[in-house]
Amino acid sequence: MSEVTTLHKHSSAACKHIDVLIVGAGISGIGAAHHLSEKCPDKSYLILENKASFGGTWRQHTYPGIRSDSDLYTFGYGFKPWTGKPIASADSILSYMGDAIEDDHIDKHIRYQHQVLNASWSSEDQLWLVEARDIEGGEAVLFSCKFLWMCQGYYKHAKGYTPEWDGMADFKGPIVHPQTWPEDLDYKGKRVVVIGSGATAATLIPNMADECSHITMLQRSPTYFWTGENRNELADQLRELDVPEEWVHEIVRRSILKLAEDVQSLSVSDPEIIKEELFKVIREALGDDFDMIHFTPSYRPWQQRLAYVPDGDLFEGIKSGKVSVVTDHIDRFTKDGILTKSGELLEADIIITATGFNLSVMGDMDFDVDGDPVDFAKTFTYRGIMNSGIPNMSFMFGYLRTSWTMRVDLVCDYVCKLLNHMDEIGAGVCTATLREQDQDMDIRPWIEDEEFNAGYLKRSMHLMPKQGSNEEWSFCRDYYVEKDLLPALDLDEDVLVYEPAPSDKQVNSSR
Predict the structure, then answer these.
(1) What is the rounded (10 degree) CA torsion for 177, 182, 184, 190?
(2) In this structure, are residues 190 and 213 in contact, taking their beta carbons and an 8 Å threshold?
(3) Where along the chain do its domains lie?
(4) Do residues 214 and 324 lie in contact, with contact meaning Cβ atoms separated by under 8 Å?
(5) What are the phi and psi torsion angles at 328 (to 5°)?
(6) How far is residue 163's CA from residue 305's CA, in Å, rounded to a whole number?
(7) For residue 298, which phi and psi values (nearest 5 degrees)?
(8) What is the residue-level pLDDT of the chain in tens, covering all 511 positions?
(9) CA-to-CA distance for 15 and 32, rounded, in angstroms?
């Protein structure tokens, strides 16, 4: 008798059963819930969320000015029109998500403050047994489900990534990571050094500058920035013509995606053109005398994300003298600030390490299949949706160049089609399975450096699932290909192995 069966027999009263269990009530989990409600209305589902409310990253981050760095016409859901400014504050995004939850009555399907600990698959029962901890009460809670949907996000919320520098213990002031921003941090009239130059630094610096005595952005290497007014001219024109919001959302969404596709393509074929356009905007904001070494990265555009600066607020801070930029390496921390490799002492009362985050693989949960522990680094990804050898489970990983949510909508459609297909053919299990011809395929990392070389990915690539050279075992990551590819996939392709549900033995388990 399997461990799951034993647990079910001994604790069935305490084990709640649902058809689909979703882990995470962030942008992915709420999207999954909407698609299930619409396309699989007969399926019961439950969302487990370890925070006290929904929102994921938008609930976690509370640093000054927290906002999206993707436009909300594409970062928003395809099924729910966005009506605010393209670059939105966290509060606006949370309000939007709250409306989506209310629209579909998703709130009754969410259990907050439930930390998921582990998941065990039983082939005998054709079920996942999932153990969670009720954070408020402290007790363990068991759930069983036919299908497990991992929508927990891709970084560790508990602690951001901060490198270890010499002398950190000597610094007399607070060292703060934006991911865990203290509510009582007082920076009024203080000298602040922000280490990093990505979207987080570009957001919090202009939103702190007016209250600090001075704020310095210290970067090891520059980031590509682009800027413009925080408005969409096409959306404004369409609204003036009283075009319905559903149409405005879809038209503007397509327009933004087409422009982004052209920019991404040109970033590869002729990156100098993109560089010059980006530099031109910065020169217009800061003047020709500004040393552009501070905004000239060593990599081509879109090997890392372009950081958007709405209304040029970062550049306005630099131009005013309240913000300065230093491009150098850190030698060590001192009691008074940071000593750079070039010998400059950057005096500081507060140091903020906007240095990125730590990748999380499947929520850092423990998984096993029939008692055998799962090491996801030894699995292959089936089209970036499922893992080889893991039954009845999918995961959500969005795009890195296009807005994350564009892939949420596509993957949700696919998973719902898969669930309905399993019902149609009487299958209780679907497992992405390596075939004989896959045994000697080339093994590739989850993401390759030449494609996208962000530090948080490079640091944790060894923990991620692998890709294979055969198409079925690759993760495309290109919306402009996947928008046509995923809807057209054959749900009976030979890498998907189905097994009959206990009530229907007519399904060929070897298909």
Answers:
(1) 0
(2) yes
(3) 3-75+90-157+360-500, 168-353
(4) yes
(5) -165, 170
(6) 21
(7) -85, -15
(8) 344 444 444 344 479 999 999 999 999 999 999 999 999 999 999 999 999 999 999 999 999 999 998 999 999 999 999 999 999 999 999 999 999 999 999 999 999 999 999 999 999 999 999 999 999 999 999 999 999 999 998 888 888 999 999 999 999 999 999 999 999 999 999 999 999 998 999 999 999 999 999 999 999 989 888 888 999 999 999 999 999 999 999 999 999 999 999 988 998 899 899 988 888 988 888 988 888 889 888 888 888 778 889 999 999 999 999 999 999 999 999 999 999 999 999 999 999 999 988 888 898 999 999 999 999 999 999 999 999 999 999 999 998 889 999 999 999 999 999 999 999 999 999 999 999 999 999 999 988 755 555 666 777 778 889 999 999 999 998 999 999 999 999 999 999 999 999 864 444 333 3
(9) 23
3-state secondary structure 205-251: HHHHCCCCCEEEEEECCCCCEEEECCCCHHHHHHHHCCCCHHHHHHH
pTM of structure: 0.91
Do 168-353 and 3-75+90-157+360-500 fall under one CATH topology?
A: yes
The Cα-based distances of 437 to 257, 300, 444, 496, 508 in angstroms read: 36, 36, 16, 14, 21
Please tell me the CATH code under which domain 168-353 is placed.
Answer: 3.50.50.60
Query: Which position has the token pair 């607020």?
Result: 313
Residues sharing a CB contact under 8 Å with residue 394, sequence separation 6 or more, in sequence order = 147, 148, 149, 150, 385, 386, 411, 415, 418
Query: Do the Cβ atoms of 201 and 194 come closer than 8 Å?
Result: yes
Q: Give the separation between CA 354 and CA 341, rounded to whole angstroms.
A: 19
CB 427 within 8 A of CB 341: no
d(CA 400, CA 125): 37
Nearest Cα residue to 129 out of 139, 138, 141:
141
Q: What angle do CA 149, 200, 399 make, to 5 degrees?
A: 35
Cβ 328 vs Cβ 342: under 8 Å? yes
CATH architecture of structural domain 3-75+90-157+360-500: 3-Layer(bba) Sandwich (3.50)
